[in-house]
Amino acid sequence: MKLQPVANPLDAAVFAGRAASGLSVLVHPIPGRRSVFAAFGTNFGSIDRVSGANGEPVPEGLAHFLEHKLFEDAAGDVTDRFAALGASTNAMTGFCGTTYIASTVEQPEASVDLLLDFVQDPYFTDELVAKEQGIIAQEIGMYDDDPDWRVFFELLTSLYAKHPVRDNIAGSVASIAEIDAATLRRCYDLFYHPSNMALVVSGDVQPERIAALVDADQSARGTDALPAHERLLEDEPRARVRERSELRLPVARPRLLLGVKETVLGGSPQELGRRRLATQVAIDLLFGRSTDTYRALYEDGLIDESFSASYSSEHSFGFSMIGGETDEPERLEARVREVLERARTGDFDTDGLKRTRARLTGGLLRASDSAESVSYGLLSAHFRGVAPFSALDWIQQLSADELRARLAEHLDPEALSVCVLRPEEP
What we know:
- By secondary structure, the chain is α+β, with helices and mostly antiparallel strands.
- Helix content is 42%, strand content 20%.
- It folds into two domains: 4-219, 2-Layer Sandwich (Cytochrome Bc1 Complex, Chain A, domain 1), CATH 3.30.830.10; 244-423, CATH 3.30.830.10.
- Helix 3 runs parallel beside helix 8 and helix 9 packs across helix 15.
């Protein structure tokens, strides 16, 4: 495999190639950096609930279950083998992907080799699956006791009628009970194959040595005959499911979370990336900590440091989330709605755009000096089909008119829903 330099707005040293098996590899050398960080990801997450040409369903929570299960094989817990190398490992499952990581300062090539091995050599038995079901059931119980997690997914079920983004990433106790070794193997074979995966290594490494290591690993695994996974737009109504909902849990203070369902979906990777960035910037200009709105809400005692405003989107879904702990959820809701309505109709102050550009650019430049941040960023860019560090160019190209237009189409009143979490009644 020949790794080639990848042009990018940061002019960072990024090399990319594809092994004969179909596995994509990206290397970001940082000479003199002690730590090395590797991320091995698959384009398979919690929303991928249909597999194969016949549309056979994937149980809710299976991507997360697979993530857990791969850490144990016939030799035991793989984390012990990383520890013996002076390395650490972890993994995370999101809506659209699952990522396995390794971090080390001692034996980077051995750690990358072990990362490749344990992810690509699964060991499934019904006995181990039954054991894992008990562990994950306990984890689901912990999520059920987490007020922020509960109100987040309660709001997603108010926004989405059908899209699996509404479902808990870990699944439910009932859904994971459907999983057996054969189901894990079927879904592993469909989603954990080289053309649907990518390896990123960042730190004090030599690209040619990583390429040789990957070639040696992949040569024994054959050529991938399966295409990369492609997601289609879901048959999801444009409007939210319900305007409001309430939860009661054993919490000290109420929480308010207001969500806006994205109604503009699809498009090219570049269009989606620019739309994502424009919405993130616009939401930050409305509710970020340097805004007059944030200061006024804080001084009026309606919010505290838990208040946040964010936007997330992928090809088939997207949403803004605004809120936090508050003693007066109705007053806070009314104030947030006022801000959103003014922005939707064009009353949107863009005076802070220059400062936001500078802050975001500075943040990206600082992140580019972190092997961990770069690894995650390169993996995300690869699966999203955009060039590394594209956001640097997009930030400079953002205009006030683009932000106003983006808010006008995003802040559809029929796509807005509110969830209030209140303390349990005595």
